[in-house]
Design the sequence.
């Protein structure tokens, strides 16, 4: 699916209008612990998280991820958004909780790597 | 051996949101220099984990990176509290981190094991009350 499909499925707001939402993604991971993400991720393209600080974007950048989804209505601060744009990472934000987001995306074909 | 290209970074101990700057900067520089994507990710992840440790456990420190044609060496040096039991600290899942650190998304006890896992050479020396010195290297494929 494309990033724009994730946004539609999760009724998510797109917070980085300057980043393309046409990128194809096949894999995702959901976590609030960044070093777990760094330990187990293989080639996941999407990070779904309830954690809100700039290290979320840094972690995604180190892992070459292309999209970060903030759940439960968390809105990233300005530094996070700046870093995301610089790293070419698309940022989405949804009111849905983590479990539902992962379920919906899995149902629609996204997988863990 | 050919001369290495050297990068030096200072990691502040009082600005958590700045942690990761060095790793991000090095990653983009190495990318421009044509380092292959897999080595690049291994370097980025291990340096980032080390950088976060400097910021949250050591009150800051210094990163020195030497780029050779066939490998990238990374040195992390701090004058923080040191680590009393290194084998324990190297155990997956062991963390001495506070709840405050955990609420920032770190403290899973995976950092040092990750650094060892993602590098080809890993050495850690630490003295309680004096500081910690880590030396890592990732070999470059051509
Ligand atoms: N530079 C350092 N100075 C002092 N203590 C350190 C240093 N690096 C690590 N430690 C100690 O070793 C423990 C394990 O480190 P490690 O990076 O594996 O896990 P963590 O930092 O607690 O959690 P994570 O890295 O998963 O976020 C830390 O909790 C800390 O007590
Ligand atoms: Mg750590």
Sequence:
């Amino acid at each position: 699916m494309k990033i724009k499909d994730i946004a539609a499925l999760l009724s998510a707001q797109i917070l980085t209008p300057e980043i393309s939402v046409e990128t194809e993604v096949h894999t995702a991971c959901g976590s609030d612990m960044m070093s777990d993400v760094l330990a187990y991720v293989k080639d996941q393209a999407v990070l779904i998280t309830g954690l809100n600080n700039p290290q979320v974007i840094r972690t995604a950048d180190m892992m070459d991820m292309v999209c970060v989804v903030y759940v439960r209505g968390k809105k990233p601060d300005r530094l996070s958004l700046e870093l995301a744009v610089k790293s070419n990472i698309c940022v989405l934000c949804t009111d849905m909780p983590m479990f539902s987001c992962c379920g919906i995306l899995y149902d629609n074909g996204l997988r863990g790597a | 051996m050919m001369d290495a290209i050297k990068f030096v970074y200072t990691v502040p101990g009082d600005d958590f949101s700045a942690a990761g700057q060095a790793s991000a900067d090095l990653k983009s520089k190495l990318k421009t220099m044509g380092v292959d994507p897999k080595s690049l990710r291994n370097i980025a992840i291990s340096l980032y984990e080390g950088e976060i440790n400097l910021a949250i456990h050591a009150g800051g420190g210094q990163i020195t990176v030497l780029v050779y044609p066939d490998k990238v060496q990374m040195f992390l040096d701090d004058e923080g509290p040191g680590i009393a039991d290194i084998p324990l600290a190297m155990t997956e899942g062991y963390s001495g981190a506070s709840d405050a650190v955990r609420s920032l998304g770190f403290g899973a006890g995976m950092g040092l094991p990750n650094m060892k896992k993602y590098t080809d050479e890993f050495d850690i020396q630490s003295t309680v009350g004096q500081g910690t010195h880590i030396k890592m290297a990732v070999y470059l494929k051509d």
